[in-house]
Amino acid sequence: MKRLFSYVMGGCLLAACAGTPTDEISGELTGLDTDTLLVYSVPVGSTDRSQMKLDTVVMQQGKFAFNVGDSVMKNITLRPLFRPTPGPDGRMPAMSMAAIRFTLIPDAPVTVKGTMEDYTLGGSPVYVDYAAAEALLDPYMAQADSVMKVCMDMQQKGVSRDSISAAYAPMEDIQKSMEEVREGYVRENAAKDAAVLVLSEIRDVKVKADLLEAIAEPVRTGVMAPLYDNQKEYTDKELARLEAKERIKEGVEAPDFTLKDINGKDFTLSSLRGGKYVVLDFWGSWCGWCIKGMPDMKKYYGKYKSKLEIVGIDCNDTEDAWKAAVEKHELPWIHVRNEGNPDVPVMYGIEGYPTKIVLDKEGKIAKVVVGEDPAFYTYLDSLLK
């Protein structure tokens, strides 16, 4: 199994010693140049950073055993503690992105054995079943590794980007085959708890929606309910986003919404109709490209303020982070925060940040620009001069 995952948070130290019957996570890892593991945990479905936790576990000859503290289903990530030392040339080595990721199920101890890049989950029956399902992917993982090796070798040799892209092309079929294997497992094992773990790895939301209906009722409502419900909520939202994306076209009336502004008052989009052109700016304080584009946004807002209004729609932020960013970057336009009811980015089919949607004076969509693209400002000049 190969996973990449990361969080940024504070933590504390746990000492790993001989395992006990109550240890939730235990195992043995080889190939590490450290005796310390970073253990990141967050409740399944949580987006609240305050619930994210970091512990540090000291291993003994690669062996570890510990608990994360309660019986809540959690997403777990294990990473080696990185203690870089300069090489002969004085340069610091790059940090490995390898990580072990799994879902910790209440009352289901899990074992982890192998390396950071190639490991097996075991212990409780649900993890044994899941490991068996993942083993079905081994032939395809080998093919993917081979493709990646070829592409990396080509990159090191300075081969053209087009040639590397051609060498990478088989990856699409490999990934499709892996999806089909996972789908087959879920359909054939819909009465097993492990089916929900495998389902969470499937990327195609339409396939995922179909499989959610196939999962047996006792599995849906049993110990796997938090993960099942999380996958159902995610899938429903993504299907709604896909449907909205088909509707958000130039010339179509923009969906109306009401959100709280930065002063806690209701702001309704349709209140701006009949006056100025409007830019809906979907952004977040966490989005580097969003922040990078703010100076140009401020410049153009000042340039066309008599003809243009901007509505900044903050997404995936805490209230404090949102307000701090508005103050820090001195953003003088209307600001509202998306809290999910209504979920405005879903209503507008937003898939990337920043996304800027220009509305005409009657509230119809005139232009959609994804990313920080100079074409957006060129369009404003052509529209407002």
Describe the structure.
This protein is an alpha/beta fold. It folds into 3 domains: 1-86 and 93-121, no CATH class; 124-247, no CATH class; 258-384, Glutaredoxin, CATH 3.40.30. It is 37% helix and 22% strand. It is built from 13 helices and 16 strands. It has helices spanning 125-135, 138-156, 161-168, 170-188, 194-199, 205-214, 217-221, 225-247, 288-292, 294-304, 319-328, 344-347, 374-384, and strands spanning 11-15, 25-29, 36-43, 53-58, 63-66, 74-80, 100-104, 110-114, 119-123, 258-260, 266-268, 277-283, 308-314, 334-337, 355-359, 365-370. The strands form 4 sheets. It has a 5-stranded mixed beta sheet, with no helix packed on it. It has a 5-stranded mixed beta sheet with strand order 14-13-12-15-16. Helix 2 (138-156) packs antiparallel against helix 4.
